[in-house]
Amino acid sequence: MRELDEDGIRHDVRQSVRHGFFSTSAVAPLCEPLEYRRVLELACDEGRGEILVGAYVGEAALEANRELLAHAEKAGCSRAVPVPRYLDPASEDEVFDWYKTLIDSTRLPIVLYAQNNPRLRHLHPSGIALGAFERLAELPSVVAVKLTQAINLVRAMECAERLGDKILLGPVHLDMMPLLSQACTIQWSVQWNAECATSASRVIKCRSCPPKPVTGSGKATEA
What does the entry give for GO biological process (predicted)? Predict the structure, then answer.
């Protein structure tokens, strides 16, 4: 029977703290549901007071996702990222309803996950249910959207134009940020491989303009 490398998980969290990150996401796609719950517990315990931890929620059954959200909240996660991996919606209303059901079941802030999902291409060529995302962005607990690595610049700009005045945008590709910042305020990035480009002994701080106030609902400044 396999076991989680609990010391390794704690080490990874400490490394993220040493690199100067303010937040990390506990992603363990090969773990069983009970194993993933333990991953969240370990990450939150090790990072408490030093780094925020987010949970990914993407089980096939809606009730399993509700239970995972409850566990993430109890463990001390700062936010949740619902991912409708198994959803085959006939309309954007169904996408909205899937998210809304989960959002209503938790007090955690929600980050939308903008990916090129083949199951959603009949709703929008990008595979992103942008109509549903626009409606979800109006909800108080929806605070941000992650622009994944599979999104090209054109799709990223469309997300910025349609969502940028409502919630925070977190682009993965750092080379997109100069152009995206012309369409909306960029306050964070979800560059997942940043540890490959620097070291904990030499944290590189980016030079940028002072943060601008976020327009729109104001939710972004609270995130």
Answer: N-acetylneuraminate catabolic process
Q: How far apart are CA 53 and CA 72, in angstroms?
A: 9
- pTM for the whole thing? 0.85
Neighbours of 73 (CB within 10 A): 17
Tokens of 3: 């076991």
Q: In this structure, what DSSP letter does residue 201 have?
A: T
The structural domains of the chain, ordered by start, are 6-222 (3.20.20.70)
Handedness of CA 49, 185, 83, 15 (dihedral sign): negative
Burial of 103 (0-12, 13-18, 19+ CB in 10 A): buried
Measured distance CA(72)–CA(205) in Å, rounded: 31
